Amino acid sequence: MTPADIIKKVRRLEIRARHLVTDSVTGAYHSSFKGRGMDFEEVREYAIGDDVRTIDWNVSAKMDRPFVKVFREERELTLMLLIDLSASGIFGSVEQSKRERAAEIASVLAFSATLNNDKVGVLLYTDEVEHYIPPKKGRRHILRVIRDLLFFEPTGRRTGHKAALDYLNRVQRRKTVVFLISDFLGEAPGSPLFANLALTNQRHDLVCIALSDPRESELPEVGLITLEDAETGEMVEIDTGNKATRLRYAALASERRQTFNTNMRKKGLDWIQATTHQPYLPALRNLFARRASRH
To answer: Which residue has the higher pLDDT, 47 or 41?
Structure first.
């Protein structure tokens, strides 16, 4: 692919992401993530409905009428996008692969953050940290983020979230909003994935986006097919003409999904499911609405 082709694809995704970042998404993003604290702004005269706990008694005594302290939220945040680039993300049975869908969702989040004057950083990983872009502001920075989301080529093929989470916790000392986008496939059995996610959530504000493709939940009836594990290279032949095989495949996929959801709930983590064949913005808006109501 030539540099001109890369620029063209980056611009296309920029235009699409900007189009998807509606006022409702931007406003919902803003209300979902709180600033680091409250800064004192001014003292003004008390008005009906003001919280009596904000009355400045010293000023009120001097002026012989009630005055209240006004505070402003210290709004500026840092958004970190952690994107799983393991080989299973290459898979796609519809218009977009999981990696392409991840890039689009990440771009929408990046533009939402930018419109709120927040910094955006990126950490791309497989079973090791592959690429880190420190948080910054500005359109040129966001275009670089989109380019790397689309075209960065990892050296690893397997999945290992711990390396990325540990790296994040080292480089981001202050509390950060973190979106981790992955299909959550390929973790070794017995991996402390959910414990690692919970640990990161104690230091930062973590939200997970679990990607999937419809063919990972249901097999088409097309006879004998050979499936390859993108991360290990292991191959297996399956007879999709056998109804029992298709039902077993669907049952295992459902069980895996339920196990993931149950463990995320137990750890008190925020997440949404995003498939490559359905709109993800409604799930994103619902996530923001849930968080805003908690605040």
So the answer is: 47
Q: Report the candidate in 204, 199, 202 with the shortest Cα–Cα distance to residue 33.
A: 204
d(CA 217, CA 278): 14
- Average model confidence (pLDDT) for the chain? 88
Q: What is the largest CA-CA distance in the chain?
A: 87
DSSP character string of 131-186 = EEEEEE-SHHHHHHHHHHHHH---S--S--HHHHHHHHHHH--S--EEEEEE----
CATH number of the domain within which 109 lies: 3.40.50.410
Is residue 183 within 8 Å of residue 273, measured between CB atoms?
no
> 152: buried, middle or exposed (CB in 10 Å: 19+, 13-18, 0-12)?
middle
Q: Tell me: do 61 and 192 sit in the same domain.
A: no
> What is the C-alpha to C-alpha distance for residues 36 and 190, in angstroms, rounded to an integer?
36
111 is written with which tokens? Answer: 């533009």
173 lies in the same domain as 104: yes
pTM of the model: 0.82
Contacts of 168 (CB under 8 A, 6+ apart): 80, 82, 123, 176, 178, 200, 204
The alpha carbon torsion through 265, 271, 273, 274 (nearest 10 deg) reads -170
The gap from C-alpha 169 to its chain's centroid, in whole angstroms, comes to: 16
